[in-house]
Design brief:
This protein has about 600 residues and is an alpha/beta fold. It has 25 helices and seven strands. Among the domains are: about 90 residues, no CATH class; about 180 residues, Orthogonal Bundle (Neutral endopeptidase, domain 2). Helices cover about 50% and strands about 5% of the residues. It is globular.
Length: about 600
């Protein structure tokens, strides 16, 4: 076998998000004498680490040489890795990407644990992330409070006297929860017709199940999921203190409202055409869709009283919102809002709420068998809400200027190779080639971390107020997003945090983004020469570049363009959730619901 063929085979096993095919869930990896991808040293993930573990990108033991590559090439290249890396109990899927994610999280745990223990010698940024993490890790304090931290929000719902009052309530709660379950969602994004500008977006939402199909499909599995969902709502309402009979009746009323909203929502297929999600309106037109909803009050309470341009992604959905406001009693709507308030905040309350939330959303829907360890939850939350503050600490320790220089140069060379390929195409005409090259040359390469770090000085973090920290951090981000409306686009902004093990191309920004977290061994190995890195991370760079055909040069919507990832992203969070199912297996049997991969 030539070295080139060997390189392709072993790099394939390192770079793909491949599935595990053997072993029992939760089973410890088989031990070996020498460390490597296929034969790892015992992974003890219950302790923080102070340095990222080294996993080589070229690892022959990952292969299964007993397999015939002509019959099962995947087993031949990756069989031993799958054998020795069963899916952990707190994961729905496992891969090299997933393992590196956990390695990065343990490294972040070490950073945060150290900062949380310190009472002096911390910068203001270090104080915020340390105290945020410390409040999250203080389980006894969280447990003692039970549902009490949710009482102010529940009291606000209870205080609503008329349907007209709902606008002010939702304006406040949308800011502090950013939950799409509260009737609808509202935010900001680039104007599809002029990507240099940011406008307001009114977005369909209001559901507790993942999407429309969960409410409308009639096969037995969908019926079973809906029944379990009703049981879940009932259990959560009982945790709020409602009687079993009342909770059962409430669950039915909630399901009725959500089903009506779901039927008025676009299907996944319809959402793939971005033109179906672009309906530019002024305030008068928006108000005509929902006459019984006080948009003037909603916008004023959200600090948007002067906004007059909106993209209403799904007008028929908002027409259905109007019907639901008219046909349901105020008490029914308040019950619906109580449910979505407790559901959105359940992960941050005491263990009774956390476990019930996990049982349905993680175990029933995704097949995950175990709650993640507390430290994982707290690392993820800190990264999610204060990600660029934590990212600075990660970059300072794990991503040198030399690594950035090498990966930037690799990206440039791959773009040069793509240019040469375009120029040599025989089926593409001269004018089309010209446009393709203009688009390629306009792509902005973002590698490692942002050029300008986000300022979190406005976020108040209190050591003994976990849910309060979550809500204030959420309100900070919501206000930051709303503050973009009516302003030119900031093209330097990132949609992922530096420690993230992923990469993406943003069609409207026309940029490719490779966080420092994904540029670590075994995906990018600075200890090796360029060849394996071009075969691994280089392949990901090429993958992201192939997305560039979906929009015109400045990132505005091209007539007829349809994104393979479901159309233009409505928010940065949607960028992070676009996934492929090509090379991944999951623990759950509902593959059509749960399939995920690791690159967008």
């Amino acid at each position: 076998m030539s070295f080139r063929k060997f390189l392709v085979i072993v790099t394939l096993c390192s770079s793909l998000s491949f599935a595990q095919g053997s072993g029992q869930a939760g089973q410890s990896p088989i031990q070996a004498e020498k460390p490597g991808i296929a034969n790892p040293v015992a992974v003890i993930d219950d302790k923080p680490i102070t340095a990222l573990p080294y996993t080589p990108s070229l690892d022959v033991p990952s292969m299964d040489k007993s397999a015939d590559p002509c019959m099962d090439f995947y087993q031949y290249t990756c069989g031993s890795w799958m054998k020795n890396n069963p899916i952990p109990g707190d994961q729905a899927v496992w891969s090299v990407y997933g393992k590196l994610t956990v390695d990065n999280q343990r490294f972040l745990w070490g950073i945060l644990d150290d900062l949380a223990k310190k009472t002096s010698g911390r910068t203001a940024t270090q104080q915020k992330i340390g105290d945020y993490f410390g409040a999250c890790m203080d389980e006894p304090a969280v447990e003692k409070l039970g549902a009490a931290p949710l009482n102010p929000a529940l009291a606000e719902i209870a205080a609503v006297k008329t349907k007209k009052d709902l606008a002010a309530l939702l304006a406040h709660e949308h800011l502090t929860t950013m939950s799409s379950g509260l009737l609808f969602n509202f935010g900001s994004d680039q104007d599809f017709s002029d990507s240099s500008q940011v406008i307001a977006f009114a977005v369909a939402g209001g559901l507790g199940l993942p999407d429309r199909d969960y409410y409308t499909k009639t096969e037995p599995k969908s019926e079973e999921i809906r029944q379990k969902y009703l049981q879940h709502i009932q259990s959560m309402m009982q945790l709020l203190g409602d009687s079993p009979d009342a909770a059962k009746s409430e669950a039915q009323a909630i399901m009725q409202i959500e089903t009506a909203l779901a039927k008025a929502s676009l299907t996944r297929v319809e959402q793939r055409d971005p033109h179906n999600l672009f309906h530019k309106m002024d305030r008068k037109q928006l108000k005509a869709l929902t006459p019984d909803f006080d948009w003037d009050t909603y916008l004023k309470e959200g600090g948007l009283e002067n906004v007059n341009t909106f993209n209403v992604t799904e007008p028929k959905f908002f027409e259905e919102v109007e019907k639901q406001l008219q046909s349901n009693s105020l008490d029914a709507i308040k019950t619906y809002l109580r449910w979505h308030m407790v559901s959105a905040n359940a992960p941050y309350l005491s263990s009774r709420f956390v476990k019930q939330n996990f049982e349905f959303y993680s175990h029933t829907l995704r097949g995950v068998e175990q709650l993640p360890a507390r430290w994982k939850k707290c690392v993820r939350l800190t990264d999610s809400q204060l990600g660029e503050a934590l990212g600075q600490e990660f970059v300072n320790r794990a991503f040198s200027q030399e690594m950035k220089k090498r990966t930037v140069e690799m990206t440039r060379q791959i773009e040069q190779a793509m240019q040469e390929d375009i120029q040599q195409l025989t089926w593409m005409g001269p004018e089309t080639k010209k446009q393709a090259l203009e688009k390629l040359h306009a792509v902005v390469n973002k590698v490692g971390y942002p050029d300008r770090w986000r300022d979190y000085s406005a976020v108040e973090v209190r050591r003994g107020d976990f849910l309060g920290n979550v809500q204030r951090s959420t309100a900070f981000e919501a206000s930051r997003q709303m503050g973009k409306i009516g302003k030119p686009l900031d093209r330097g902004e990132w949609g992922m945090t530096p420690p993230t093990v992923n990469a993406y191309y943003n069609p409207q920004m026309n940029d490719i983004n490779f966080p420092a977290g994904v540029l670590q061994p075994p995906l990018y190995d600075a200890k090796l020469d360029d060849a394996p890195n071009y075969g691994n991370t280089g392949g990901t760079i090429g993958h992201e570049l192939t997305h560039t055909a979906l929009t015109i040069r400045d990132g505005s919507l091209m007539p007829g363009a349809i994104s393979a990832n479901g159309g233009p992203r409505k928010t940065a969070r949607h960028l992070n959730s676009a996934r492929s199912a090509s090379w991944t297996n999951t623990r759950s049997t509902q593959l059509w619901m749960t399939s995920k991969s690791t690159a967008s």
